[in-house]
Write a structure and sequence with these properties.
- The protein has one domain.
- Helix 1 crosses helix 4.
- It has 8 helices and 14 strands.
- Helix content is about 25%, strand content about 25%.
- A 7-stranded mixed beta sheet has the order 5-6-14-10-7-9-8.
- The protein has about 350 residues and is α+β, with helices and mostly antiparallel strands.
């Protein structure tokens, strides 16, 4: 009578199938949301892919302050140079997320051949990857972290803070006193632009957007080797579907030659040439704020050797034929230039 296939041989077979399956990919199967901003602008964007770094945290130097000592002088005038602390260190910690799936060796014995095993594990790994992307999306658009939260990543509302007053009033969120280890009260340039709208109209919301676009459009007058200046590349406007749809109606009303297509502007209307996006996650959150984001100033930084890393198979506790496989990711989001971004708050 045949002895059958040993457990370690089945584990080796599973590893072989996983390797042939290729690196984990984002597969939107049975997804909850209609679109995924994080996937589009951080994971699968050729111009803004994740950055990889090491260490026990994320650290960057930011040039935030000038001494303002330049002046016209007469001959033999007294010098007034002062030593200033021109730069500050931006610091955030890596945050860990994982998910996995399980299988029984009996399943493998019943599904001989790599093709059948591929079909067996593909939906489980796809489900695992989708779970991670769903969680990243919800955390990016979720509420700003409390000061005691050491588990979750620093999402959009941590970096770009709303305020009803027009101007650079986006300070620290909630009870925080710093943003990324930098005090926005001490460094005025470390604040994002804010405003508030009550009506989705050209006279209210669109006018506030025009104001925000002007005041956040900083253009460096000189180039210094090794210093990266902010740019307008990658600007995108993000809001929920209801606000997006009302803005689209304004664009349609400006044009009396849109033809016979009843929704000809879908996915095509812009603001100052920049894309306007209806975020499915913001729609689910009933969040009608309008974010004008310069994606050139954002980054998703991942720990080296810990980006969608697959581990296993490992023994499943309490099930002698059970196995488990994990996907791990260590990451956080960073905004390098808050004042190049703005949020126009929806009045309550």
């Amino acid at each position: 009578m045949p002895n059958g296939i040993a457990a370690d041989q089945l584990d080796d077979l599973m590893r072989s199938v996983l390797l042939n399956y290729g690196k984990p990919e984002i597969r939107q199967i049975a997804q909850k949301l209609q679109n995924y901003f994080v996937s589009t602008y951080f994971l699968n964007n050729k111009d803004n892919k994740p950055t990889f770094d090491g260490g026990d945290g994320i650290s960057r130097r930011l040039f935030l302050k000038r001494s303002e000592t330049a002046e016209f002088k007469g001959l033999f005038a007294q010098d007034t140079l002062n030593l200033e602390n021109y730069s500050q260190e931006l610091k955030v910690n890596y945050k860990h997320i994982d998910d996995g799936w399980i299988y029984d060796l009996g399943e493998m014995r019943r599904n001989k051949g790599k093709g059948l095993l591929y079909n067996l594990i593909k939906p489980r790994e796809a489900n695992c990857m989708l779970n991670i992307v769903e969680k990243l999306e919800s955390k990016f658009f979720g509420d700003a972290l409390s000061t005691t939260d050491t588990v979750n990543p620093n999402g959009l509302k941590y970096w770009i803070v709303s305020n009803a007053t027009t101007g650079f009033n986006g300070g620290a969120p909630g009870s925080h006193t710093t943003v990324g280890n930098i005090d926005p009260t001490a460094y005025e340039n470390w604040k994002n632009f804010t405003a508030q709208y009550t009506k989705i109209s050209k006279e209210d919301l669109i006018d506030k957007m025009q104001t925000a676009a002007f005041y956040t459009n900083f253009k460096a007058p000189i180039e210094v080797d090794g210093v990266k200046n902010p740019s307008r590349n990658g600007m995108v406007i993000v809001t929920n579907f209801a606000t997006y749809n009302a803005m689209k109606s304004i664009a349609e009303n400006q044009n009396d030659k849109i033809g016979t297509d009843l929704d000809a502007y879908e996915g095509k209307f812009k603001f100052q040439g920049n894309n306007i996006i209806a975020s499915a996650q913001m729609t689910q959150n009933s969040d009608a704020d309008v974010y004008m984001l310069n994606m050139d100033t954002f980054d998703m930084i991942c720990l080296e050797d810990s980006y969608m890393v697959r581990s296993g198979p490992k023994d499943l506790e309490g099930v002698h034929n059970g196995r488990k496989v994990f996907i791990d990711l260590e990451m956080n989001w960073v905004c390098y230039d808050r004042r190049a971004n703005s949020v126009i708050k929806a009045a309550a």
